[in-house]
Design brief:
Length: 354
């Protein structure tokens, strides 16, 4: 891909841009895969935490908190299925189009799509690519096809694994924050259900909530540790990849099958970016509400017992939970709008240059 870019950026801009798009995407994939392998122990501990249900309040939750917990998990199951099916459909459509339909069109209509047969470019492939081998010999074409198919069909697995891990971890964290918020708001109702003295019951319920809050911060910090570096590479490259996908999709001289490929790429990249930013913003908003949850309870009746816990929780809640990418940017709706705006500016610049 790098050879294609350096050799054809002056004579065949479309091929150079297409290979640059794939080069950036594959590089980000490799960084994500290496980062996840390096943080394998952290990932395992996160999966164990999720598998255990995060935190056990034992018998200290009231009926309203338990109902909220059941409803939240019922809703998240439907959301997960919707996100999973939609994203998998778009990504696999792009993969099938580029690996099956486009090569078939190039073979069936060679005169319109082959370009210059003597420029060293192998165009009857998933992506047109320059090869140091003689492209009139079958072995050179087979090597390029094999390498491209390996990349094409391993890419969805890496994308699905990394994306769904982050999205569903954020979803689980959001549910736990909702449960924590409700447990603090209903702390008096929870204490009334227990058999000991009221003040002792309040202290016990608050201790459970504080421990839950601490566990959620530990999980949040682990998630940040895992995705900080690959997430930064992904979000920085999103502006460039969206720009290049949009540029190829809008060019008049691009064949319809190539427009279809990059239209699907554009859709899947936008969907991935929006989903990550949406769930990231949800965590920010929920974590900011934790500090006021205990204040919204009937704390005034037992102010002497609750005031220390209220101060601890409010002080801790000043540190908002958010996904920070190497302290360079946050995963939020503002980041989504900034990346889209930057990408659109790049697209206008490329159109002017073209």
């Amino acid at each position: 891909m790098l050879g294609t870019i350096t050799k054809f950026y002056k004579t065949d801009l479309l091929c150079a841009i297409e290979n640059l798009h794939f080069l950036i995407f594959v590089t980000v994939e490799l960084v994500a895969m290496m980062s996840f392998l390096q943080k394998r122990a952290v990932l395992v501990s996160m999966y164990i935490t999720i598998g255990k249900g995060f935190f056990d309040y034992e018998n200290t939750l009231d009926d309203e908190c338990l109902e909220l917990k059941r409803d939240a998990y019922d809703k998240t199951d439907s959301r997960k299925r919707l996100v999973h099916h939609s994203f998998v459909t778009v990504v696999m459509s792009a993969c099938i189009t580029i690996s099956v339909f486009r090569p078939a069109v190039l073979i069936l209509f060679p005169k319109e799509n082959m370009g210059n047969p003597n420029d060293g470019m192998i165009r009857v492939a998933l992506a047109p690519m320059w090869s140091p081998f003689d492209n009139t010999q079958w072995h050179g074409i087979v090597i390029v096809w094999l390498l491209e198919y390996i990349v094409a069909w391993t890419t969805p697995g890496i994308v699905f694994g990394a994306t769904f891990f982050v999205l569903f971890s954020l979803e689980e964290l959001g549910i736990q924050l909702q449960i924590l918020k409700k447990s603090l708001t209903n702390v008096i109702q929870r204490a009334e259900r227990l058999e000991q003295g009221m003040e002792e019951n309040i202290k016990l319920c608050l201790k459970y909530s504080v421990r839950h809050h601490q566990l959620l911060f530990e999980f949040h910090d682990k998630l940040n540790e895992v995705i900080s570096l690959p997430g930064l590479g992904l979000f920085v490259s999103f502006s460039i990849m969206l720009c290049m996908s949009g540029f190829i999709f809008t060019l008049k001289e691009v064949p319809l099958v190539s427009k279809s490929v990059f239209g699907l790429f554009l859709l899947s990249e936008c969907a991935m970016l929006f989903a990550l930013c949406y769930f990231g913003e949800n965590i920010i908003e929920l974590s900011e509400e934790i500090g006021d949850a205990l204040y919204n309870s009937d704390w005034a009746i037992y102010s002497k017992v609750m005031q220390n816990y209220m101060l601890i929780i409010q002080m801790r809640s000043r540190r908002t939970m958010r996904l920070t990418l190497m302290d360079f940017m946050d995963v939020s709706r503002n980041t989504f709008s900034n990346i889209c705006s930057t990408s659109y500016s790049y697209l206008n610049l490329m159109n002017e240059f073209n």
